[in-house]
Amino acid sequence: MQKNGRPRLTAKETKAIVDALEKAILDHGKWLSNWHRSLMCNLPLPDDVRVDNAWKISKFGKWYYKQKTPILKEHPFFISIDESNRELHRLARGLAVKIKNGAHITQKDYNQFLEKEVILSGILIKLRDEFHQALFSFDSLTRVLNRQAFLRILAQEYARASRLQKPCCIAMVDLDHFKVVNDAHGHQAGDKTLHTVAQYFTSNLRPYDSMCRYGGEEFLICLPFTPLNLAKNILIRLQKGLAALSIKIPSRKSIKITASFGLVTTDPAVTMINTITRADSAMYAAKHGGGNQVVIWGDKA
Question: Which of 95, 116, 137 marks a domain boundary?
């Protein structure tokens, strides 16, 4: 966990949360259907309705109270589910006791139960939809953030660095001679290369760094709370590691690729867009200097 926030979810992690929420909603729906079927058909109510800890032993409850994904577990919507789930099961148990004792269930009794269920289902759906919407923040090929989503994050990091007077660095990255990969091996090989490079970068950046596919074979990286010298060392490590990486392409061959990195530190007096332009200029200087290197804006390749 970073000291200035939490690590961001990857596309894979986000999809896993969406899938888990979909299943949780389905399990809750099945529980509700069984409950109504028991009421309508005068069937015995299941144990996960009648016992004191029903809220915890239902299939949905077991998933909820054993949840270990921090970014989901700490979400305000997720936290609010606890009260609604407990209260819903308390009301369900109260109705079950009335049924067992042959008492009449009033419209008020049922409405209280139904209102609490609507609240719980509403929270679950909102939570699922929020994470589902987050999936649209990722580039479909590389599974890293897309440009639009990243620029929103970058604006926040830019403002925070300025407010706290902390260093923040931005790097533009362009794959060297990428057209040759497409021309020599086909576009499927090019797609596999882009995906592999993106995953290599994200796996070797720090949890609180962020990156997007800026366009084509270009990536933009943000290194928050990082002085220029440290940022350069991080990028050199990425540059050398990428150059040594063997990328398996659909033809079962392995290819090598390098990248040019342009690095700049943010300046409160310079707009975010102009800072990106500076990183882009430094990247082109690295490329014109032969590629496979890191150039700081203002330096010569």
Answer: 137
